[in-house]
Amino acid sequence: MPQDRIAPTVTYDRLHIPVLLEPVLTAINPRPGQTIVDCTTGLGGHASALLRKVSPGGRLIGIDFDPANLELARPRLEEVLRVSPGGAFELFQNNFAALPTVLRQAGVEHVDAVLADVGVASTQIDNPERGFSYRHKGPLDMRMDPTRGQPASALVNRLSERELSQAFLDLGDETDALAIAAAIVEYRKSQPIENTQQLTAIVCRARDFTLQRAAGAKLHPAARTFQALRILVNRELANLDRLLAVLPDVLRPGGIAAIISFHSGEDRRVKDAFRDGLRAGIYQDASDDPIIADEAEQRSNARARSAKLRWARRA
User: Fold this and answer.
1) Is 117 annotated to bind ligand?
2) Is 44 annotated as a binding residue?
3) What angle do CA 86, 251, 83 make, to 5 degrees?
4) Ordered alpha helix ranges (H), 127-174
5) The whole model's pTM is what?
6) Which of 24-33, 73-82, 210-219, 293-302 has the lowest mean pLDDT?
């Protein structure tokens, strides 16, 4: 049975650090010949490790909403097959809420495991043009698929003060949500908010931070606001709810669902879905508590500090 706290033993890639990799591998226990889905392929950190484990004879199905991520992950997965031949992978650009549709396209009915890392990829944060970062100036976009939906700028310039404050509180756990929403509404009376630099400055002023002090803070004062907007723009909670609802239908008996979340609202949804599934006999086993990174991983990867992994085994 997977343990609820596991010290990672992997050597972390300086350029891309998959969160909670060793606990994920322990929870899923991938074996040659299995078919596993990585619903959030990202740069291929988890996906490449899973593909290596299911080869030979196994199959990795990778999904990502961002087409740029898939193109970056592809060579990493191809390299795995050069070193560990006999496996196979397929990549699909879609939202993980559409998991049953993707599996039909792949000609698969049931799989041995499903992994979802419900966060944002480092490439999205590091590219100023994507608008995810409060540290770099760029258009206030935040769409994981830049061809769909409304950018964050449209929301901050349109939503009411009440709607903004509620989003910052519910989706970002932001204690200064009211002050930040009021500052945004006041600012946009004179000019629209179009880039990340504007929004960062507004949030810092609302929270009584100078930009210099903010840059040195352990948690940037704009971090929770940006997180909330990203979740709102991409409808992440609704998509997670849909994924949790379809998991029992796509897992074969004994199959494992593993979800990594970074926000209390996400983790609560995963916890409730797995608990309710246990009570209904849909799942036969599940983690009692969230698995978190140990101190060594948290030092190596700041993103791991808020990561929580939960797993459940299909009955």
Assistant:
1) yes
2) yes
3) 20
4) 152-158, 161-172
5) 0.88
6) 210-219
